[in-house]
Design brief:
The complex is a heterodimer of chains A (224) and B (221). Chain A has 224 residues and is α/β, with parallel strands linked by helices. Chain A has helices spanning 9-16, 57-64, 86-91, 108-118, 125-134, 150-163, 181-196; strands at 19-28, 31-41, 46-50, 72-77, 80-81, 93-96, 169-173, 200-204, 216-219. In chain A, α4 crosses α5 (125-134) and α4 packs parallel to α6 (150-163). Chain B is mainly α and 221 residues long. The chains are: A alpha/beta (224), B mainly alpha (221).
């Protein structure tokens, strides 16, 4: 929609900034999780959402990408309300949540192949295999995901960040949980290279970030 | 088109993996209908009167049995979130899921129905009427049922609620369907009843995908 006017998303996200929230408020189960949250995230920007359990970090991330209904306020992608440019937003987004989005009966390749088709990404099976190899899942590509360990299942889900090259916004909810140190290194490296190529990242984590990168912090408090 | 086809294929593969679970509604359907002649007695005249009703009630109940599974796995493992975040419109996704569900769990029931019609002494005219009402009516069951399933998918043990929500809605369908078969038994025309069921089906086709999509979005909250 926007790109048809002769601008590429790459240029636009530098000029306009990627994601911004304006006076965001959210109520869940009759409890006000947060109100008047504002931020704006530019290309190369990393937003790090902090807060204790139950503060609403996950709900904030889900509200940003439109999975949770927003009580008040607006979320803008490239300065346009996300509700008005849903397709463009989804084309440029990768979300990694608590639920991995993998069907346990299907194998890693079947899951990822389906995901790529769903996202209209042209990924050959060879690409999927090579990404799974990078993630140290050699030999586990074709067995049902249910037979993999928790960490391995998360690695399969993380492969999406390798497969959707066109994305310019990553939203990660506790991505380091259940990963071993090698997995954490792999993901950290991938996040840093994504940021340096102009992507924007929103993430939550209870561990302190192991890498040095200028980040915006958003601290949520637990409210009663 | 490709995301839609991919979803269709995936759901068919999953149905194949789940074939033991898919057998459940079919076994239930078979059992109910084969027990009736034993309980009521083999009197052909009685069976002929209650037959269409029994088949339809059994079809409604067994479709309710399998319906709960429609969005459950995708909701629980998060696939649904990823589908919502894809570029494919959610109503289209919902429609494909309902269609694959109908093909894999309701169509086998319809294929079994000639055998069951013999159990219940239905004559040929009644059987054809029954088949047409089943072919028109069961997609309606699936479409309307999917709305309720989407609404209750976030609740644990939504099964009872599902049945309570749906049974009143299925009553008109049941009345028209059994009255069509009764009319066929008396060698009367039954196009009016079929037209009503077809009208309800078309109405559901047009609106249910949007209602399902909305319910799925709400259940993400």
């Amino acid at each position: 929609m926007l790109s048809s006017r002769g601008f590429s998303i790459d240029r636009l996200r530098v000029i306009l900034g990627v994601l911004s929230a304006h006076n965001l408020s959210l109520v869940k189960n009759d409890r006000l999780l947060f109100d008047k949250v504002n931020f704006s995230l530019d290309a190369h920007g990393l937003l790090y959402v902090k807060g204790p359990n139950g503060a609403g970090k996950t709900s904030l991330l889900r509200a940003l990408i439109g999975l949770h209904e927003i009580e008040q306020g607006e979320v803008h992608f490239l300065q346009a309300n996300v509700l008005d440019c849903k397709t463009l937003f989804h084309q440029n987004l990768v979300y990694f949540g608590h639920k991995l989005g993998l069907n346990l009966r299907l194998s890693a390749t079947e899951n990822l192949d389906f995901w790529c088709k769903q996202q209209e990404q042209i990924c050959s099976i060879d690409t999927i295999y090579s990404v799974l190899t990078q993630l140290n899942l050699v030999g586990l590509e074709d067995i049902p995901v249910a037979h993999l360990s928790a960490g391995q299942q998360r690695r399969v889900a993380l492969a999406r960040f390798w497969l959707k090259e066109s994305a310019c916004l990553w939203v990660l909810d506790e991505p380091f949980t259940a990963l071993d140190s090698n997995g954490i290194d792999l993901l950290t490296e991938k996040i840093l290279s994504f940021l340096s190529s102009g992507g924007a990242v929103v993430m939550t984590s209870h561990q302190e970030l192991l890498f040095n990168y200028p980040k915006q912090e958003l601290v949520l408090e637990y409210r009663i | 088109m490709s995301p839609i086809i991919a979803l269709f294929k995936r759901d068919l593969i999953l149905a194949y993996h789940n074939r033991a679970e898919l057998m459940q509604p079919m076994m239930f359907f078979m059992l109910v209908i084969s027990l009736f002649p034993l309980a009521v007695g083999p009197n052909a005249a009685t069976l002929k009167i209650i037959g269409p009703g029994v088949i339809w009630v059994a079809a409604i109940l067994s479709s309710l049995l399998g319906l709960e599974r429609l969005f459950r796995d995708d909701f629980q493992d998060g696939s649904l979130e990823q589908m919502i975040l894809s570029t494919t419109p959610l109503p289209a996704i919902a429609l494909v899921k309902v269609a694959t569900h109908w093909l894999t769990s309701i169509l086998p029931l319809i294929c079994l129905s000639p055998l069951l019609a013999v159990f219940l002494h239905l004559n040929e005219a009644m059987y054809w009427a029954l088949l047409v009402t089943l072919l028109l009516g069961t997609p309606l069951l699936s479409l309307i049922g999917a709305i309720a399933v989407a609404l209750t998918v976030g609740l644990n043990r939504g099964g009872v609620l599902l049945a309570l929500l749906l049974v009143p809605i299925f009553i008109p369908l049941l009345i028209f369907a059994t009255s069509a078969v009764d009319a066929a038994a008396m060698e009367l025309p039954y196009t009016a009843q079929l037209a009503f069921i077809a009208a309800m089906l078309l109405f559901a086709f047009a609106l249910a995908p949007f209602a399902i999509a909305y319910a799925l979005k709400v259940s993400q909250n």
